[in-house]
Amino acid sequence: MARIQSIRGMNDILPSETPVWQYLEGRVRDVLSRYGYSEIRFPIVEHTELFKRSIGEVTDIVEKEMYTFEDRNGDSLTLRPEGTASCVRACDQNGLLHNQIQRLWYTGPMFRHERPQKGRLRQFHQIGVETFGMVGPDIDAELILLTARLWRELGISDALTLELNSIGNAESRANYRQALVEYLTGFKDQLDEDSKRRLETNPLRVLDSKDPKTRELLVAAPVLSDYLDEVSRKHFEGLCARLDAVGVAYKLNPQLVRGLDYYGLTVFEWTTDKLGAQGTVCAGGRYDGLVEQLGGKATPAVGFAMGIERLVLMLETLGVTPQEHTQADIFIVSVGEQADIEALSIAEKLREAMPSVKVLINCGGGSFKSQFKKADKSGASLAIVLGEDELQRAEAALKPLRAGQGEQQMVALADLVNTISKNYF
C-alpha cells in the first residue's frame, strides 16, 4: 500500500526544528508583553466574503491564492490567507472596538495556494499585531520600535532594513492612480503580463512588480508622495520625526504600496538581502477604513505581520539560533522491575523539587550499556543509576556524563534530591 505524503507546500516541523521556533515565539511573546499587548485567538476558517471585502476582489490573494470550498450547508468558506481581517471581525463581533483602545497579537497558520519555494509555503505561519482606537503617528512609531527591539534581542538587526512610505488617504490615492494610469498607458506594450492586467484592475500594484523592464519604466513614473493631502503629509512627517528622535534608521521607498486594498497612510516593511527572493520578513501599516468596510463603526487601526518561517531562516542563516537543544538534564538508568518502579518515584520527586530541570527516565528495558547510550544521546549532564545492588543498599549512583563534572558517587536514596539540587543544578 502506498504511503500517504504531506500536501505539497504544507510542511512538517520536526522535533529537531521546533526548539528554534519555540525560542523565536518566546522572544516575541516576551517583547509584546513588555509593550502591553494581549493575545487574541480566532478560527482558521472564515466566511469567504470576509476576505473578498477586506483584501479586495482584484488582488492576487483573492483571485488566485485562497483555499475556498463549500461546506455541507452550501456556505462558501475559506482557510484564512492572512490574519488582519479575522482579527477585525472577531473584535467587532465581540464588542472590543467601540470607544476602546486595543493592543492585540496572534499567531498561527495561514494558507495561500502558490508555488512553494524557500521561505514561501502554502501553509505558512505568522505572528500578527493589530491596534485599534489610536489615530496619531505615535502608535505607528510604537509598532516600528517594537519590531526594532525584537530584531536587536534576536541578534538580526544588522541584516534588516526598514522601508517606509505613506500612501495617503483614499482621495490622494485616487488622484495618484489617475496620474499613474496615464503614465503607464503610454508604455502598456512594454509591461509584463501581470502589470498589464493590474493596470486595468489595481494600478498601484504595478509599483510592486518584480519584472526588470517594468521596474525600469517605474523610475520615471509619478511619485505618490507628490499627491498626498496635508493631513497625510503631517501624519507621515510626525512618524519620521519620532523615528529620528529615537534613532531608528529607515529608507524612504516611494514605490512601497503593500498588496492588500485596505491599507492607507503609513505602510512599512522590514527587508533583508539574506534570503534571496523572499526578502520581506515583516510588513504592515495603517488601515483606518477596514472596520467600517466590514460593517463596524469607523475605527483607526494599524498593525503588522511577520513570517515565522522566514525569521527562522534568518536566525539559521546568521548563526544566531539558541544553544543546542537537549531532551534532558538528568537521565535515570534502571535495570530490574523494582529499580524501574523506584526510578518513576525519583523522577517525580526531582520534577517537584526542581521544576526547571528536565528529567528523562529509561522506558522499555535494556542493559546498562544500551541505556547509557540513550543517556548520552539525550544530552543529559547527569545520570542516576539504579540496579538491584543499589536498591539493596537504598542507594543510587550519580554519574556525571560530561567532562569536568567530577567523579561518580554513591548517595542514599533519602538524600538524593537534596544532593542533586545543591551540587548539580
Alpha carbon gyration radius: 28 Å
Distinct helical segment count: 15
Instruction: Report the uncertain regions.
Output: none
Shape, please?
A: elongated
Please give the share of residues in helix: 25-40%
Q: Strands of the biggest beta sheet: in what spatial order?
A: 1-5-6-11-10-9-7-8
In brief, what are we looking at here?
The chain is α+β, with helices and mostly antiparallel strands and 425 residues long. The protein is built from 15 helices and 16 strands.
Structure description:
The protein has 425 residues and is of the alpha+beta class. 39% of the residues lie in helices and 20% in strands. The chain contains 15 helices and 16 strands. The protein has helices at residues 18-34, 48-55, 60-65, 84-93, 137-154, 170-185, 193-201, 212-218, 230-246, 290-293, 308-318, 337-353, 368-378, 388-392, 416-423; strands at residues 38-39, 45-47, 67-70, 76-79, 102-111, 123-132, 161-166, 251-252, 266-271, 280-286, 301-307, 330-334, 359-361, 382-386, 395-400, 409-412. The strands form three sheets. Strands 1-5-6-11-10-9-7-8 form an eight-stranded mixed β-sheet. Strands 13-12-14-15-16 form a five-stranded mixed β-sheet, sandwiched between helices. It has a three-stranded antiparallel β-sheet with strand order 2-4-3. α1 runs antiparallel to α5 and α5 runs parallel beside α9 (230-246). The protein is elongated and about 90 Å long. The mean pLDDT is 92.
